Amino acid sequence: MSLSDADYHAKAHALLARIEAQVDAWLEEDVVDIDSHRTGGLLELSMPGGSKIVINTQPPLQEIWLAARSGGYHFKWDGAQWVDREGQEFCARLSRSASEQAGQALKFSAC
């Protein structure tokens, strides 16, 4: 499903804002120490132990890219959610990657 440029930017930036809000809530609740740094359409999560997860918007392709230790993933909007080529939902993939890299169960529920 193709989005207008405005819709893509709105959905992509809202997704990044929700991820940042979840990380901030975990910091406040002392769940896990993840630092986030956002520059435009790029969000970098610095995980415990020094690893990183990078989430990057790709406006020309209307995709969201996720880079983690487990690999790189590309997500497109399917009309209801961000999914990769294998049908994996973004929030589920991000939760799995963050859990692996943080060494504890983490669930991004507001993606």
TrEMBL record:
Gene3D superfamilies given in the database record: Frataxin/CyaY
Keyword Iron appears in the UniProt entry: yes
InterPro entries recorded: CyaY (IPR047584), Frataxin/CyaY (IPR002908), Frataxin/CyaY_sf (IPR036524), Frataxin_CS (IPR020895)
Keyword Transferase in annotation: no
Pfam families: Frataxin_Cyay (PF01491)
Xref: SUPFAM superfamilies: Frataxin/Nqo15-like
UniProt entry keywords in alphabetical sequence: Iron, Metal-binding
HAMAP family in the record: CyaY
Family per record: Belongs to the frataxin family.
Function: Involved in iron-sulfur (Fe-S) cluster assembly. May act as a regulator of Fe-S biogenesis.
Protein name: Iron-sulfur cluster assembly protein CyaY
Source organism: Pelomonas aquatica
